[in-house]
Write a structure and sequence with these properties.
The complex is a heterodimer.
Chain A (H helix, E strand, L loop, with lengths): L1 H4 L4 H15 L4 H28 L2 E4 L10 E4 L1 H28 L5 H20 L3 H20 L7 H31 L4 H8 L5 H17 L8 H8 L2 H27 L4 H27 L4 H21 L3 H32 L10 H4 L1 H15 L5 H15 L3 H27 L17 H19 L2 H18 L4
Antiparallel strand pairs in A: 1-2
Chain B lengths: L3 H21 L4 H27 L5 E8 L2 E6 L2 H27 L5 H20 L3 H19 L5 H33 L14 H4 L3 H11 L11 H4 L5 H28 L1 H7 L3 H19 L4 H22 L2 H32 L15 H15 L7 H13 L3 H27 L27 H19 L1 H8 L7
Antiparallel strand pairs in B: 1-2
Helix pairs in contact in B: 1-2, 1-4, 2-3, 3-4, 3-10, 3-14, 3-18, 4-5, 4-10, 5-6, 5-10, 6-8, 8-10, 10-11, 10-13, 10-14, 12-13, 12-17, 13-14, 13-16, 14-15, 14-16, 14-18, 15-17, 15-18, 16-17
Amino acid sequence: MIIASQLAVLPVITPLVLAPITLLLPKGRASWAWATLVSWLTFAACIFVLKTVAETGLISYYLGDWAPPLGIEYRIDLANALVLFLVSGIAAVVFPFAYRSVELEVDERQTPYFYGALLICLTGLLGVTITGDAFNVFVFLEISSLSTYALIAMGARRDRRALTAAFNYLVMGTIGATFYVIGIGLLYQATGTLNMADLHDRLVGQDNRMVQAGFAFILVGVGLKLAMFPLHLWLPNAYAYAPSAVTAFLAATATKVAVYVLIRFFYSIFGFDFAFMGAAFTYVLLPLGLAGMFVASLVAVFQEDVKRMLAYSSVAQIGYMLLGLSFASAAGLTATLIHIFNHALMKGALFMAVACVVFRCGSHSIHAFAGLSKRMPYTTWAFILSGLSLIGVPLTVGFISKWYLLEAAFGAGHWYAGFLIVASSLIALVYIGRIAEVMLLREPASDGKYVIAAKDAPLSMLIPMWALVAANIYFGVRTELTAGLAERAAAALMTFAGGGS
Amino acid sequence: MISPGLAIPLALSVPLIGCVLIWLANKSPNLREGVTLVTGGVLLFLVITVFAAVSEGDRPDFHLIEVIDGLPIAFQAEPLGAMFALIASGLWLVNSVYSIGYMRSGNESNQTRFYMSFAVAISAAMGVAFAANLFTLFIFYEVLTLSTFPLVTHKGNDAARRGGRVYLGVLMATSIGLLLPAIVWTYAITGTTEFAPGGIMSAHADAVGPLAGVLLGLYAFGVGKAALMPAHPWLPNAMVAPTPVSAFLHAVAVVKAGVFSILKIVVYIFGIDFLHDTGAATPFMWIAAGSILLASVIAMNKDNLKARLAYSTVSQLSYVTLGAMLATSMGVMGGAMQIAAHALGKMTLFMCAGAIYVAHHKTLISEMRGLGRVMPITFGAFFIGAMSIIGLPPMAGSWPKFFLMVGAADNGQLAIIAVLMISSILNVIYLLSIPVQAFYLNPAEEGEKPKGAGGAAIQWGALKEAPILCLAPPIATALGAFLLFFFADPLYKFLTPLIGGG
């Protein structure tokens, strides 16, 4: 009973409290096992939260029983329950996967710090998602960012460039967080509150310069965090040089959570009464989303490094999410929420496949993929299936995303956007096809540094990776959970924001 | 007896089960090929069950799952689909026999992968044939593209890589870039993608009206497998595949899935009457007519036999598109019959080309002079197939040409009749010349010539035909092309519901 009433806080408190224990454990297997256990407990908590929200509706939880707006409120509706489920689910898959990969890529003495930091990062992401307090978002955002900087820097054992990548992200991330907190400050000045629901109430009719500036600061700050084109420059290097398991985790979660924050601000705090919302949709999100889709995809085509290629692809995929948002319709919002979920599944699986190659070959250059189907067939097919998902082939989640996005585009009368969406998918076909061709039709290297023994990745990596691939296909055929919930969530957000359906 | 409703899901899953069994029988080629043949037999039986039910006016259906609200993966057999399924499954069996002969004579590598991909492809073709809505059709259309990619790139050399790149590039680009938006657009306007007799557009005429031409264009080029110029380059490029692949997939299953989809979209999504009234199809009728002539002209200039046949296929496929775009009942009937007739005729030609390659390693037409005296049976079958493609009685191919001309006349398009006549003449020139040269001309001076190719009379002792497994299948399909001429009436009656009769 007591646990049940405290359900809403469990997703955050579990990893937050249990993470420091990792540091006390012996290095290597023990700290990994503990972290994995924690991630599973967290996932279980998030499943319960999602179930409860889906059945009984909104959960509002007062931290320490301090009533909002002074106290911090955790406010969980379907939208963030879905993101919580996603983030913790990815963590529950990445942690077991990480063991062998980290063994190779991270200094063994650092492993307790590594797993501890990864758990803290998870805590931060879950906290950002769960909270109903704008300042609390900033706090958790910093928690996740700081741990991310450390995690990326741990890639330095394999490649020293991880240090500059981490530093670069540190600078950019901090600028983003500062912008965000300036924005929050301005809103606080205007309303005297930090609680999101309260902000929404008190912002009514306040279409003044201060609120507009606050909105702009928040948009840019969060835009940096979610790698909105052209604020994405930190992302490719950070993803490319971070330890493989970290990349798989971040690519599937970090930017998604930032997109969620943007949605929360647009729909639950500002709403359609503000004239500048329309301007933000039409003049910021739409063009930047489209530009990201094309520029980043085209850059991806010419990458020699598969990890970097996938990183640019992520920037492009974020373009789809922004595009969905920019339609300012329930259908567009649904498409964005679905794509947040689906893209995490495909990118997670893809980066895991790259991690498997790195594990056997020690490189993520395209040359390491030559003839991979003869050397590591299970990894190859995992990459190809999730690659097809990225392109948007039917029976995969990518197709579901495309379908909803296209439907939203045609429904909103932006038929040209519909064609741009598929055109951008075709660029994905080019860059995925390029790798697939190398894997399937080239002969494996017989000498030089890209030689791989004919041995697939260990089971502890294959099983989590294939679990994600299976999810790619399962959610491509059964969409009650993703599309069903996303539609309900979008409808609720839309109504709250005072927009049409 | 299996109920027709159950036969549909079984027809989809039996080849997939066969695929797994083929994989398990990897070590023993005889067992593996046995599995292929048994699977083919069972599939044919299942499809005949469905076909019989459809001919009695039944419309067996099967609902798999609802992927998105209002978008189920569902199947329903109707005459056109049942016919396509019957052709595909019947010819798969014939082609499997042929494949065994061809692949073993050639000592090809990766044969297990070859038969597995074939099984997946035929399952996808069944899915296309029985799809009850555009959404389901699109799913299996893409599966068909992907499952045939390993077959096209079977040889794994540079040429195969290049061909495979164009194959996948064009087919995926058109289907994702044009077909998918067209389907979603249709869904956004009408709220359904269901195939319904009379079409689903007429109920939303106001919304569709100005867009009908645009949408039809998206479909016509989006279904890249129909090879309407300029979406055709994948087909000649697919010829790098082993000949059984070209014979079955690129004369029957894949290309027919394309034109079948076009017909189905015109009849069950737009509706013939709706297209006729809006006149939206007229530009595409001319494009199809241009495609017919242009592809024929290109075919004439190809010395490589398979390349010539490929362009001939491009040309012949546009007959079906033309029939659909005429937007008259006779045009649609002609298009539907062309699917059956061309399948038999073109498969014969491809299998003959493969037999020639197996027996003499010749690929260029100029090298085949005099070869008819060494391979009279093969070239005889080729002659019959070519006659059918041209449309000479008493071959099956004459009926679709007849109906298409009637359809063109109904629509008052006399120029189309002229196009059909010119095309037949071009066909005579570039197809009949091959067996005629093989029988009458002397081999070229330089290069080694097969024994017995020189003299005036056929020396029966010096015959060198392909192995029996490569020889019997083209004879069977040639015979089929001949027999179908006399069974045009039952086929016409079977297809009548398509044009609103019966």
